[in-house]
């Protein structure tokens, strides 16, 4: 007599297939990670000048999101990038002060490591490692300047005479403090200085990503150099994140949101709108915002969720919203004219009903 399978209720069937689906998704995520053992990790740390490590709990949301970015990171680096499953190797993770996931560490041998605190994107992690592979300060000349400034979005080069020991020492000390964030170089190449139309002594911030420069001229103190590094190194159009959201919302400047669908859009609009952000930086903070992660905010800012790229301006202290017309292209000239209307009180704010409120005082 043939065996018969028991009849399952629809609810049981649904639960059964849901478990199969979840197991399949978990296996797919796990397949993207290629974890190393404790012994493999220590062997790689001992045998490499630099080692990048991700300490993860593979089933957590942030670690799932990192998996594909980590694979992209590994493909672009000449140094090893490994991952450790902290659910299976708690001892190793605890030894490196890992208490939340993912945690990324860059090792310079077995006894020295630094935390990575930037975006969990290959586009940010790869330059971080490449910066670490350089000397604190690289010697720069007319032949290698392009290669050095192409490593990251901002590069600081001090143009100093060879016998200007005091400025060299000050610049190097500041570079040691910020080496994990930026690329630094020193040049005494007269031909390069002439090409850049720079007088000794000067420090240039090459903002390669937006095609712009900032210059600090003259003999200055370490504190002045440090302040210049921080100000010139901060992107005028930053990415809105959970970490900086409160700072932007508490500012007394207008907040201009650029909703984007992906990193390509983010790069495009950071470069395209940089001149406007620079011109009006005393009055307006510009940020790009991930449409997927922050899409729930679109409606309250007068935008349609999923219609990206899109642009809107928010006044936190007056709780007023100024959505940019969806039918107009997001171009520098158009955005500047739009901002001037807001700043001069010539554009009425939007209301949730879809109508505009009455005219208001100059902001």
Automatic annotation (TrEMBL):
Its EC number is 5.3.4.1. The keyword Glycoprotein does not apply. Residues 1-31 form the signal peptide. It is found in: Endoplasmic reticulum lumen. PROSITE patterns: THIOREDOXIN_2 (PS51352). It holds the Pfam family Thioredoxin_6. It catalyses: Catalyzes the rearrangement of -S-S- bonds in proteins. The keyword Signal applies. GO terms for biological process: protein folding; response to endoplasmic reticulum stress. It is an enzyme of class 5 (isomerase). This is Protein disulfide-isomerase.
